[in-house]
Amino acid sequence: MQSLDAETRNMVLRFQRDEITEHHIYKGLGGLVKSEHNREVLNRIADEELRHYHVWREHTGQEVRPDKIRRWFYLTISAVFGVTFGIKLMEKRENSAQVSYGKLLEAVPEAEEIAKEENEHENELIAMIDEDRLKYMGSVVLGLNDALVEFMGALAGFTFALQNSRLIGMVGLIMGFSASLSMAASEYLSTKTEEVDRSPVKASLYTGAAYIVAVLFLVGPYLVLANHYAALLLAIVLAVVLILVFSFYLAVVRDISFRERFGEMFVISMGVAAVSFVIGLLVRRFLGVEV
User: Fold this and answer.
1) Residues 159-192: pLDDT tens digits?
2) Would residue 13 count as lying in a domain?
3) Is there a contact between 217 and 150 (Cβ–Cβ < 8 Å)?
4) pLDDT band per the 50, 70, 90 thresholds, residue 3
5) Do 235 and 172 belong together in one domain?
6) Of 83, 108, 202, 207, which has the fewest beta carbons less than 10 angstroms from its beta carbon?
7) What would the pLDDT profile of 59-111 be if each residue is shown by its tens digit?
8) What is the Cα–Cα distance from 161 to 159, expressed in whole angstroms?
9) What total of structural domains would you count in the chain?
10) If residue 80 lies in a helix (H) or strand (E), which one and from where to where?
11) Buried b (16+ CB within 10 A) or exposed e, 110-125
12) Closest alpha carbon to 238 in 163, 144, 160, 142
């Protein structure tokens, strides 16, 4: 076995720690999934990660402890946002690590086989995933997009037309909950007419829930702040945060461009808000309505 120089040894130790950490993560993910098939695949990949760890250990002659913080992070992320999101987020990190495998080939010939197996892991994981929430991601997109575009625009218009935070908040809540029920009903009818493996009830619940979450985020500032312009500014900031988080989630689980998705949602939502803001100003001025 070829002796390792200091730089190569440190690199191998990092890979070794990654493997034992991912072994524990995959074992933990196996406990989160309901499908017996998915659990078996995750456990098998966990065993392979452990085998990779032992390969690296043969070259370092040193035991390494798993990264407990990273293990906690990925298991928590997976529990909150779904196993698919957690796995794909972790796989993106693994892809960046695989670039360094080529530097080890001379000192550690097994690195090529390990890199190949890591690539197989990703394909196998993507094939095995059958999460309920992914089937209804389109419904969530519909509810959230509609709320951010339509409701954000309405709030901007109300801000200039009504100029009273509490009143805007009250009108916004009534409108928001009514719109969420309407969106949920429309999604139910739409899904029922489609020939897809989706429950119309679940689809409507996902759409309505996404809309309500967005409504609560956007109306909240008007119920807390007395200044309606400050409330609008905070609502815009929260809308951008929602767009940011959701765009990142979609970019990870669907392997799409985060920048393009975020840019598209941001431009449309803020564009409609700006137009509605002007409309509210014009309505107030030409109708002469004072509240």
Assistant:
1) 877 778 888 888 888 888 888 888 888 888 887 7
2) yes
3) no
4) low
5) yes
6) 202
7) 888 889 999 999 999 999 888 888 888 888 887 766 555 555 556 666 677 77
8) 6
9) 2
10) helix 68-81
11) ebeebbeebeebbeeb
12) 144
Q: How far apart are CA 137 and CA 82, in angstroms?
A: 12
Residues 6+ apart with CB under 8 A from 288: none
Helix (H) or strand (E) holding 120: helix 111-128
Indicate if 282 and 149 belong to the same structural domain.
yes
Cβ count near 81 (within 10 Å): 16
User: Of 80, 99, 129, which closes a domain?
Assistant: 129
Residues 42 and 138 in one domain: no
| Residue finishing a domain among 110, 129, 148 | 129
Shared-domain flag, residues 98 and 141: no
**pTM to 2 decimals?**
0.71
Residue 62: φ, ψ to 5° = -140, 135
What pLDDT does 25 receive?
92
- The angle subtended at Cα 265 by Cα 213 and Cα 263, nearest 5°, is 135
Q: What angle do CA 256, 263, 146 make, to 5 degrees?
A: 90
pLDDT of residue 61: 84
17-62: pLDDT as tens digits? 988 998 999 899 888 887 787 888 888 888 888 988 888 888 888 8
Residue 156 contacts residue 276 (beta carbons within 8 Å): yes
Do 103 and 143 sit in the same domain of this protein? no
C-alpha 52/C-alpha 56 separation (Å) is 6
Specify whether 45 is located in the same domain as 17: yes
Cα angle: 134, vertex 145, 129; to 5 degrees: 10
Q: Is residue 241 part of a domain?
A: yes
